[in-house]
Design a protein that fits this description.
about 120 residues, Alpha-Beta Plaits
Length: about 120
């Protein structure tokens, strides 16, 4: 079965052209975003033109081809526009396994709680 993560990626309208350019270079990245996402909101997530992608149970390994392309896309976005135009949040199965990147969409964050 493998180790699974929950992942959310949101991006402002200004960064969408950079994301789409990277999808044009990487079929694996395009498939990850537009075919494999469990939920997506294209063009009107939080503001006009913003996108949201959600993966509920994905094997998110940094060495996979799409993950490498995803990282390159994020680095290009940061270089061109800064890190205020996106948010990447990943939580793994372990309690201390979490990543939060980018300063946009501050309402997307990790919250762990006990329900009973």
């Amino acid at each position: 079965m493998g180790y699974r993560s929950e992942v959310v990626f949101a991006i402002e309208a200004d960064a969408v052209p950079t994301m789409l350019a990277h999808c044009g270079k990487s079929a694996a990245l395009k498939e990850l975003l537009f075919a494999d996402a469990d939920k997506k909101c294209l063009g009107d997530y939080d503001s006009e033109g913003s996108y949201l992608f959600v993966w509920d149970h994905i094997k998110w390994y940094e060495s996979s081809p799409w993950a490498i392309a995803f990282q390159m896309m994020k680095e290009d976005i940061i270089e061109k526009l800064g890190d205020e135009c996106y948010r990447f949040v990943r939580i793994g199965e372990e309690m201390d396994d979490a990543e939060v990147e980018g300063f946009g969409f501050e309402h997307i964050y990790v919250r762990r709680e006990i329900d009973y």
